[in-house]
Amino acid sequence: MADVKLSGVHKYYGNVHAVRGLDLTIGDGEFAVLVGPSGCGKSTLLRTIAGLEDPDDGTITIGGAVVNDLRPRERNIAMVFQNYALYPYLTVNDNIAFGLRARKTPEIEIRKRVGEAAEMLGIGSLLQRYPRQLSGGQRQRVAIGRAIVRKADLFLFDEPLSNLDAQLRDEMRTEIKRLHHEITTTMIYVTHDQVEAMTLADRIVLLRDGKIEQQGAPLELFEQPRTGFVAGFLGSPSINLIPATLKINGGGAAVVFESGGTMTLPSAKTTSLTSAEGRQVLVGIRPQHFSRAGGGSLRDGVVAYSAVADLIQPTGTRTFTTIKIGGVDVVAELQAHDVSRHGERIDLAIDLNRVVLIDPASGLVIA
Amino acid sequence: MKVGKLPARKVRILGLRYLGATVVTLLFLFPVYWLFMISFKTPDEIYHVPPLWVPAQIQFSNYYVLFKDGDVVAILNSLIVAGVSSGIAIVLGTLCAYSLARFGTGGENLAMWIISQRMIPPIAVVFPIFLLYVHFGMVDGFFGLILLYTAFNLPYVIWMMRGYIVDVPLELEESALVDGLNRWEVIWKVVFPMVRSGLMATSVFTFVFAWNDFLFALVLTRTEVITFPVQLTHYFGGQSNFWGKIAAMSVLGTLPIFVAVSVMQRYLVRGISLGAVKG
User: Fold this and answer.
1) N or C: which end of chain A has fewer CB within 10 A?
2) What is the pLDDT of residue A77?
3) Given B44, B59, B74, which residue is the final one in a domain?
4) Cβ-count burial of A3 within 10 angstroms (0-12 exposed, 13-18 middle, 19+ buried)?
């Protein structure tokens, strides 16, 4: 077990500055997920920790020891790759035992550990097969098995589920989470999938252009994004961003949309905005903060809004409905039967208690 | 009725196909057959008109003469020269190919330059090489021939193996590096098994090149290290040709190639890297 510290890490590929002076500390036993759009440097960072890439600057520490000059095999890490990286000419058993044999572990010990890992992953009956005889999910289990028998200090996962179909991905995600509960080794997991990031992580590290945009617990990032990018990256469907102008009147504030229409903001949101009259903002409303308005009075901070349903996308549990606010297409996530046909007029309640206001120039969340 | 008709038509087509295949096979096998038959005939039978399809009695006197006179040493020489030179070319060439494929050694153009060396017509370089060899006293020895065949086979091996190695998923090697192997072990335990079919096929081709080469062997050997193709030419005389010896020597010289090709067939068919990554 080990903690991981990166300080001032830079990595260039030719002219591309892939990792830009990154500082990051991952605690012992923590499950950290590096997430971000493609090209944000998350895989590069993981490979640098693994020793498959050398950093151009900065130091990497694993378990208190600087590992910059250590080869991958000297870092006592285990890694699971996107394409499983199973050796096609070896049986499942030999694949799992590969790393142990490379480290000259006694055969008795190998047999014991392979047996344990296979049982933990439910692949005990497949040990004599070859990788080509396995399904995608089984292959990924073997790849994970090969990592866990090593009893490494640190586990690295490089988009391990992206080759699996949706159902299998859900299943394997659960298993990886359970695995972490059972073996409690420090894990660093790279993905571009925000659902994987949210569900697996103790801590999400959201990267953008080789730098950390924000890091924290999943719900912290989701509910208190520091930038518009974070707000937009997490959540599915993604947050709606509507251009508007701030209007301060007395103690309260409201947003005025470009094509007309005004929404009064809840007082909790306005304390920091007293001198922001006339300021341009992007109003970020998550699809989940819409609901069908029942009769009766609305809670504090919830506003009523009447709209015409345009596109309707039922998912079974929820229905995504496209409406217009301030002339912009906006997605509202409603109950499955809240809306039934295109063109239907619906009365909505929008919870503005959790609205985010973003400065369009800097991209920072201002309230 | 329809059910009965269709198979009949299919059977006819299949029959024609087999007939065609048989004819073509016989056509191609005939020279081989004839070669074997001549090697078993007496001189009288070889020149008999009309030709005899089979000798009256299978006899091995043509082979016996080759062994008695020591001519078969040429086969042994060829085996040594071809075997050692292709072995060296394979080992060195594969390592070079790995370097080109994985470390980008020499940039994009080095591989092209290397293969261009293989395009040189041998006749254009054989005499300069001869003069060089005379100067260094390397004519008519194993070392000279092995060096030359290695040099000629290296570009081919590098080019072919580079292609096979590039196709090995990089993640397999990286995974092995993380799992505890060093670079040499990765080449031995991961890359070699992955490119085994390609390696076998390439070895066969390099072996066959050295085995069949006539030009260099003719110019660079005299009496000490005569290879099989050169030895064969000694049986073509101004007055007469020793067809019995020619045939027997040709049979002996063809056997190693038979073995080599049957090995190649087994490995060429295998798509070994199937299932390495998502399949």
Assistant:
1) N
2) 94
3) B59
4) middle
Closest CB from A81, A103, A163 relative to B180: A103
Question: Can you tell me the ipTM of this complex?
Answer: 0.86
Q: Chain A: nearest CA to B238, how far in angstroms? A: 58
State the pLDDT at residue B269. Answer: 60
Q: Same domain for B152 and B24?
A: no
Q: How many domains in chain B?
A: 2
Same domain, residue pair B47 and B105: no
A102 shares its domain with A212: yes
Residue range of the domain that includes B123: 65-269
Task: Output the six-digit token pair for A196.
Answer: 């994987």
Mutation choice for A interface testing from B179, B181, B189 by most A CBs within 10 A:
B179
B244 belongs to a structural domain:
yes
The CA distance from B99 to the nearest CA of chain A, in Å, is: 17
For residue A150, list chain B residues with Cβ-Cβ distance below 8 A.
179
CA distance B273 to B184: 20
Residues of B in contact with A132 (CB under 8 A): 274-275, 279
Distance CA A197, CA A216 (A): 11
Mutation for B interface: A48, A73, A135, A149, most B CBs within 10 A: A73
Share of chain A above pLDDT 70, in %: 99
Q: Per the domain annotation, does A364 fall within a domain?
A: no
- H helices, E strands: number in chain A: 9, 21
pLDDT at B18 over 60: yes
Distance CA A99, CA B33 (A): 54
Which residue range forms the structural domain that includes residue A297?
Answer: 240-358
